[in-house]
Amino acid sequence: MDLGNQQRIKELAEQYGSEELLVVLGGAEAEASGLAAETVSVGDPTYAGPLAGVSLGLKAYHMFELKNEVDGAIYEEQVGMMEMVLNVDAIISEVTAYRAQ
Amino acid sequence: MSLLTGKKVVILGDRDGIPGPAIEECVKSTGAEVVFSTTECFV
Q: Disulfide: which of A45, A94, B3, B34 matches A34 by Cβ 3.0-4.6 Å?
């Protein structure tokens, strides 16, 4: 994950706490989405950024998981196309695994 | 009650997946507050 974004998320987590703040991902593939979910929950696995060794405990959801949480028409308009071309099951499986840790 | 109700949300969009602004539109429809939104390029 971009190092500047890691710093920003760290600051926001300190400001709002892990109960109030959650992360929504739009990653195109499972591995990158899982990596982002891991970074905001248990820390940066690449040890490259500000979240290296920092466990924020934030819950991350992929946008595909929130289909039933948001306005259906807006979802179709904004996400529908990508839902058809990406491997939704693999992405959700990967992101869910990190939330369970 | 939605999972997102009353939450502050960080959006990490993907240029090759779902970009930040598209996720923003969805999240805003729940009444959740977007506190940070970006679109990364993972390649």
A: A94
* Interface contact A28-B17, CB threshold 8 A: yes
Long-range contacts from A8-13, C-beta under 8 angstroms, 24+ separation = A8/B36, A9/A40, A9/A51, A9/A56, A9/A58, A9/B10, A9/B36, A10/A50, A10/A51, A10/A54, A10/A56, A12/B8, A12/B10, A12/B35, A12/B36, A13/A40, A13/A56, A13/A58
The reply to whether the predicted model has a pTM over 0.90 is: yes
As for the ipTM of the complex, it is 0.95
Length of chain B: 43
pLDDT in tens, chain B (43 residues): 679 999 999 999 999 999 999 999 999 999 999 999 999 985 5
